[in-house]
Specification:
The protein is an alpha+beta fold. Helix content is about 35%, strand content about 20%. It is built from 5 helices and 10 strands, in the order βαββαβββαβαββαβ. A hairpin with a 2-residue loop joins strand 8 and strand 9. The longest helix is centred in the middle third of the chain and has 31 residues. The protein is globular, with a radius of gyration of 21 Å. GO terms for molecular function: RNA binding. InterPro entries: RRM_dom, U2B''_RRM1. Keywords: mRNA processing, mRNA splicing, Nucleus, Repeat, Ribonucleoprotein, RNA-binding, Spliceosome. Belongs to the RRM U1 A/B'' family.
Length: about 220
């Protein structure tokens, strides 16, 4: 059955015991390695159980993800992936509302900025705002173990393993009990750890949390 390449990919044989929000976050972490994910549709209705749609901005990203992740053991079940038959009404509508949502956010942001400017009465001569501070991540000497922080509360071992196991030499992820925002990732060598560190520095598992990666202290 030949289906025309599409920005939207259809996945089935998904483990339906996973909560919807966790499922969407894990799919996002896994698929956003291949390109910008516009949206993920996963429903828990009887008809849609064990299935999901992932919408990419670029067609090439959808194609790449389909090839690379075909049969990937996602929560211990091999994913079956194909292009969606069409951009279904649901997907098209979501694409439409996605743009509107962003515009609304932008409008609200502008309105807030304007309000802030009206209320701000400069008293001193210097009205120049200070330059934005660039966040530099202080680092330790190279190590085969990476230290991750600023992780969102929902982070789990599965998500981090999916992100890091695409890099050669990946060995394991270790979470810290009672601390959701930090973790350690071990590689076979310092060089391999360095490649993963550079590639995933600042990666956002959720929209608000940019992951900070340093070498673990020896």
């Amino acid at each position: 059955m030949d289906i025309r390449p599409n920005h939207t990919i259809y996945i089935n044989n998904v483990n339906d015991k996973i909560k919807k929000e966790e499922l969407k976050r894990s799919l996002y972490a896994l698929f956003s390695q291949f390109g910008q994910v516009m949206d993920i549709v996963a429903m828990k209705t009887m008809k849609m159980r064990g299935q999901a749609f992932v919408i990419f901005r670029e067609l090439a990203a959808a194609t790449n993800a389909l090839r690379q992740l075909q049969g990937f053991p996602f929560y211990n079940k091999p994913m079956r992936i194909q292009y969606a038959k069409t951009d279904s009404d649901l997907i098209s509508k979501m694409r439409g509302t996605y743009g509107d949502k962003e515009k609304k956010k932008e409008k609200k942001k502008k309105a807030l900025e304007q309000a802030a400017n009206v209320n701000k009465k400069p008293e001193g001569v210097n009205t120049q705002p200070p330059p934005p501070a660039t966040v530099q991540v202080p680092d330790n000497p190279p190590n085969y173990i990476l230290f991750l922080n600023n992780l969102p509360e929902e982070t789990n071992e599965m998500m981090l393993s999916m992100l890091f196991n695409q890099f050669p030499g990946f060995k394991e992820v270790r979470l810290v009990p009672g601390k959701h925002d930090i973790a350690f990732v071990e590689f076979e060598s310092e060089a391999q750890a360095g490649v993963a560190k550079d590639a995933l520095q600042g990666f956002r598992i959720t929209a608000t949390c940019a992951m900070k990666i340093t070498y673990a202290k020896k």
